[in-house]
Amino acid sequence: MVKPHYGYAKTESAVKRKLREYKKEVAKGNFETQDSYMLFQDYCLDWLNSVYKNKVIVTTFSERMRTYNRYILNQPIGKVTLNNLTQKMIQKHINSIAEVSVNVAKIVLFLIKSSLCYAYQADKKIICLFKM
């Protein structure tokens, strides 16, 4: 969510000009949101509880929470802020999990992909690294 922006000028036309310039900057993505500095593990947990929980049955949700607790919470990828998370970090994390279990790696990738794409769609200035 972008903080309110206040602009002042001597004339109404100057205020409108400043507003247009501000909207252009926002459209370019030059303003970061508060959520950009949120840790990925915190954002993912928030997404699980507020969005994903309402779309699946209880057993599926509890399985995904177990996966989150084991493979995202307190892991190196979970401790990265959203604005610093890169595709390379995600791939490295998925590769390390895939060495143990490909199926678990697919589930972790689903959690990462879905939460990041939701952040992007919710206008949180996060780059969606995946095609939906």
Fold topology:
Elements: H1 12-28, H2 40-50, H3 58-71, H4 87-98, H5 102-121
Structural class: mainly alpha
The end-to-end distance, rounded to whole angstroms, is 23 Å
Helix content: 55-70%
Q: What fraction of residues sit in β-strands? A: under 5%
Query: pLDDT average, as an integer?
Result: 81
What number of domains?
2
Q: What is the alpha-carbon Rg in Å?
A: 19 Å
Low-confidence stretches: none
- The geometry reads as elongated
Q: What is the H-and-E element order?
A: HHHHH
**What's the number of helices?**
5
Count the beta strands: 0
What composes the largest sheet?
A: none
Overview of this structure, please?
With 132 residues, this protein is mainly alpha-helical. It folds into 2 domains: 31 residues; 88 residues. It is 56% helix and 0% strand. The model has no long low-confidence stretch (mean pLDDT 81).
Précis, in short:
With 132 residues, this protein is an all-alpha fold. Helices cover 56% and strands 0% of the residues.
Give descriptors for this structure:
about 130 residues, mainly alpha, elongated
